[in-house]
Amino acid sequence: MPSGVAIVEKDFAVARGPTANIEVGVEAKILAKAMIKQIDRVIGDLQRQVQMFKKSGGNPICVGFVGINCSDIYTSYEGRRRFRTDGRKYKHPIQEAADAQGRLRRDALPVFEEFLILKFSATNVSPYGFSWIDFGALELEYNALLTRVSREYDVRF
Hints:
Shape: globular
Strand content: 15-25%
Structural class: alpha/beta
Helix content: 25-40%
Strand order of the largest sheet: 1-2-5-6
Number of domains: 1
Largest sheet: 4 strands, mixed
Distance between the termini: 17 Å
Number of strands: 6
Number of helices: 3
């Protein structure tokens, strides 16, 4: 809290102090490649984060954002090694996007007051292009979400 006094303890690099109750908690995740391999962990992370928001009491508004890559190809890197999707053994993001979105809507969305999937396209190859899928619809959904959160904030707090 801005008015709180930080307490510096010996052998600790970060001071501690009083905290405020969370009023709006936001968690964001990005799925770019190998989404189905990661989906259970991502959903679990999202669910656990809502539990953490609510742990300290209060009645927080919990908001989730998940970016889902819808590109027809993607390259990931581990050190100097490159891994390019091939559509067979290594699925292209677009091949997994609908399944990932469905599972997120089924298993993560219910624990949030607001939840938005942000569909994008990115290949992770120079010049590192990026684009939103249906930006107009996304902009409307995002603005509507902000309006609902603002109204709910006024009701709760």
